[in-house]
Amino acid sequence: MRAALKCSRKKNRRRKQKRNDRNIVQSRQIVSVPRKFRRIKSTNSIGRTSVSPHKKECLRRFLPSDLRYLLETPDSPFLLKDIQKNNKPTNGLVSIPTKFSIIDTPEESYDTLRKIIYALLIEDIDRLTLDYANCESTELSTQVLLDIILKDYVHFKKICRNNYRIKKDIFPQFGGININNKELKEMMWSVGSPATLGIAKREYDNVVEYPLRIHSIEKNTSEQKRMNQKELDTTELIDYVISCLGKMNKKLTPQKRDDLCTVIGEILINAEEHSTTNKRFSIGFFRDYDDNNNHCGLFRLVILNFGRTIYEKFKSDDCPNKDIVKKMLDLSNKYTKKLLFLKGEFEEENLWTLYALQEGVTSVSTDNYKRGNGSIRFIESFFNIKGNTKQDNISKMTLLSGNTKIIFDGRYNIVEKNKNNETFRVMAFNNNGDIECKPDSKCVCKTNNYFPGTMLSVKLLLNEDDIQEIK
Tens digit of pLDDT for each residue in 16-35? Predict the structure, then answer.
């Protein structure tokens, strides 16, 4: 009996030893990972870059409202997840194109802005350099869009640094080089990135600047305070227009000044009402020069907001002006029956955006609406300021909203219509002056790049002439 028990114990010891030997061999084949590394979630590699956990946390928690809206709106050309997926490493250098304009050269310009965002927020670099060596002109609307992004980025970096209290920035520094073109240099150092970001500013005798104004609408602000702020902003903008005209030896009549105050006031209010981020932006730049011994001036003004587009505002179920929406739907049915819609070129969104500019059209409830529609009057007023109705290759007003671009260049004028004994003005962009006829595709069209809000960009060529007063 004892001998049997002794034999059984030996067998058990041998089995146990074999199991231990197998475990030792297997353990030697496994690399032990320290616990502190195992806690870190894996990152998605993009080319030669990856987003660190700290960066991801900052992007999730600390993005300012405007930058977040641009980066997270599904149709935005700056949707961060698409930028992260499609862009290649810049190695810290982005070249600004010859003509930097989301209006005139949108594909190249939007792509440049995407590269800048990628380098700042995704790529693992210490510094981003913007090279202007090849840049000959920058559209003010494009420059202000870049500067809004950079301004929010600077604020974002500061928040990240204060929260993590780390010595080294996890997001890169940035700067510009080779700003050699004379006209570009004057704009950049007056109202461009160096001036807007508080780096440096220069004064020029031939320049009248209207630096970037950002009006934020606080949630608890009373209607009276908002109106007071609008009056201040309007007066400031009118004074800027008068200063620019003074350079050309022109001035507004008192009546014209009052009319322009009303029109600009309505445009500013419209920008507030359509803003999702509760902000509106405005900026201006004027430069006078001699062209073949003719004294000329180039006046530029941009007003914009981020939020629902004009079409989205009318198309949404919560649009309070149901009467206007019904008219728009009826108009769409007429275009559909006439086969006037063409996918990718002219669609319902473009038609509704155009219709929204006409006199008496608004998305605000008619019960509370006490203003006239300012858009068509704004167009009329600024072309009156131009001093003549002749078309040139420079003067134009451009509206961007969503996938719609509308260009006012003097090719078509505002016409008066009479219907049911009621007189109203129409800007239809066709020879018939009829909104039920398809507009000129050179003036009203669908764009490939969605602008996440509404932007109005004015560029006027002013000539010094014998007319002292604009009546």
Answer: 665 555 544 443 333 333 33
d(CA 384, CA 433) in angstroms, rounded, equals 20
Confidence at residue 2, expressed as pLDDT on a 0 to 100 scale: 54
CA angle 274, 446, 286 (to 5 degrees): 65
More confident: 142 or 291: 142
Amino acid code (one letter) for 331: L
Distance in angstroms (rounded) separating the CA atoms of residues 309 and 455:
10
Q: Tokens 């002749």 label which residue?
A: 390
Cβ atoms of 138 and 186 closer than 8 Å:
no
Residue type, 458: V
Q: Which pLDDT band, with edges at 50, 70 and 90, does 467 fall under?
A: very low
The span from the CA of 200 to the CA of 218, in Å, is: 30
What average pLDDT does this structure show over 88-94? 94
Q: Which single residue is written with the structure tokens 């998605």? A: 44
Q: Give the residue among 303, 304, 322, 302 at the shortest CA–CA distance from 314.
A: 322
Contact 93, 178 (CB under 8 A): no
Residue 114 to residue 236: CA distance in whole angstroms: 34
Q: What are the two backbone dihedrals, phi and then psi, of residue 430, each rounded to the nearest 5 degrees?
A: -150, 165
Exposure string for 36-49, b = 16+ CB within 10 A, e = fewer: eeeeeeeeeebeeb
- Length in residues, the chain: 471
Please give the Cα distance from 262 to 377 (Å, whole number). 9
Contacts of 34 (CB under 8 A, 6+ apart): none
Separation between Cα atoms, residue 404 and residue 327, nearest integer Å: 20
